[in-house]
Write a structure and sequence with these properties.
alpha/beta; 7 helices; Rossmann fold; globular; about 35% helix; binds S-adenosylmethionine; about 30% strand
């Protein structure tokens, strides 16, 4: 899926995933002391804007200019500053390490997915946090929604190994259940949730 695909998705509706942060981002990052953060594949900026509202200095990187424009509007509506950067997550490189790297539902095929996770984990500075939430492979058979291509989904153990190999200590590694409201009632989506920290 290239940036044209995502531009069309974002142009077609108001907010694809609402303007509130992802529930696991809110649950796990509320207590974290603010510092510098990179939201890689930030989309419409829901998580970046929430972090900025909590005092984080956030760079929100995505290759969809339509998504980022919506993020800019969301930031303005919330009176926060976010540095929105239109770039490819697989090649963009920060010139410094940060306190938090966030990957939220970045959907890539295996080789690119591994590259993105490795690179993101390598940007976490001492004492910093790597946070990943994404569609888990088990969601296809046992969960609701998300990509129906297994290769775009995450395997918990494989992803944890990548994060560990980048030198981070795994703090949380689980398949998390997310409740989704549908026209047919509540459904459960299964997400890979990984939190690693750098010493
Ligand atoms: C499912 S959306 C998630 C957006 C956001 N992280 C969130 O949770 O609301 C996936 C995002 O990844 C972005 N993306 C996919 N591949 C990318 C790449 N190679 N470089 C930059 N952004 C990419 C898309 O443009 C899209 O905004």
């Amino acid at each position: 899926m290239d940036n044209q695909f995502w531009n069309e998705q974002y142009a077609a509706r108001e907010y694809m995933w609402k303007s509130a942060p992802n529930q696991f981002v809110e649950q796990h990052l509320t207590e974290l002391a603010p510092g510098t953060a990179i939201d890689l594949a930030a989309g419409e900026g829901r998580n970046a804007v929430w972090l900025a509202g909590r005092g984080w200095q956030v760079r929100a990187v995505d290759f969809s200019d339509v998504g980022l424009d919506k993020g800019r509007r969301l930031a303005a509506d919330n009176n926060v500053e976010v540095d929105f950067i239109c770039a490819d997550a697989l090649t963009w490189q920060p010139d410094d390490k940060v306190g938090l790297v966030l990957l939220s539902y970045l959907q890539l095929h295996q080789a690119d997915r591994e590259t993105a996770v490795r690179r993101g984990a390598s940007w976490v500075g001492p004492g910093g946090t790597f946070f990943l939430i994404a569609h888990d492979k088990t969601n296809l058979a046992n969960g609701h929604g998300g990509p129906q291509d297994l290769d775009l989904c995450y395997d918990l153990d494989e992803t944890a190994a990548l994060v560990e190999n980048a030198g981070l200590k795994i703090q949380t590694a689980e398949v998390a259940k997310r409740t989704v409201q549908t026209d047919d009632g509540e459904r459960t989506a299964l997400d890979t949730l990984l939190i690693g920290t750098a010493s």
